Amino acid sequence: NAGVTQTPKFQVLKTGQSMTLQCAQDMNHNSMYWYRQDPGMGLRLIYYSASEGTTDKGEVPNGYNVSRLNKREFSLRLESAAPSQTSVYFCAIADFNNEQFFGPGTRLTVL
Amino acid sequence: RKEVEQDPGPFNVPEGATVAFNCTYSNSASQSFFWYRQDCRKEPKLLMSVYSSGNEDGRFTAQLNRASQYISLLIRDSKLSDSATYLCVVIPGNDMRFGAGTRLTVKP
After folding, report:
1. How many CB atoms within 10 Å of residue A60?
2. What is the pLDDT of residue A40?
3. Which one of A11, A66, A74, A83 has the largest count of C-beta atoms within 10 Å of its C-beta?
4. Is A91 in the B-facing interface, judged by CB distances under 8 Å?
5. Helix, strand, coil percentages, rounded to 5, for chain A
6. Which residues in chain B have their CB less than 8 angstroms from residue A41's CB?
């Protein structure tokens, strides 16, 4: 079992470019989350999906869109990247006890 | 005021020391609480849940004080391998709120 996988691991974008971060799980959990982590800020929730077909905004959703394609996959899209979106992005899943399991992260730099 | 606040750290302690971290939260409706550990440039990993009655896992003890709205993590007999950043997590509803983390360095 891979748990939670994320692609890509690293990405460099120019301002205005778009990209999609992919997340997949093989643990059959309903809830999936996207976070960003910046120095001194801790993890901040961007979007989450409590179940297939539903998505909700978190603390910092502006500039992002998500798709819960099926139970396994939850993608995060940046339509027009900005330098303020330079960060480490983590995908996570949660079981019924709200215990979260994280993917390895995507390090994104926007120039 | 942030929803979840942690001791800023860093904490630098010798091996064998006992160290404690606190985490305060502002939403009194919060129902679930956790401590996570994060190593440098790695993803956070669940350390332990925090139960109302307090709970212990080996050298680690977690406690919840609902009246004062804080959770704590106590590490006894610190090991070099305990060096990491410790994140508290509070769940007020369907989403999650993380503290900024407390950095611990255990020195020989």
Report:
1. 17
2. 76
3. A74
4. no
5. 5, 55, 45
6. 100
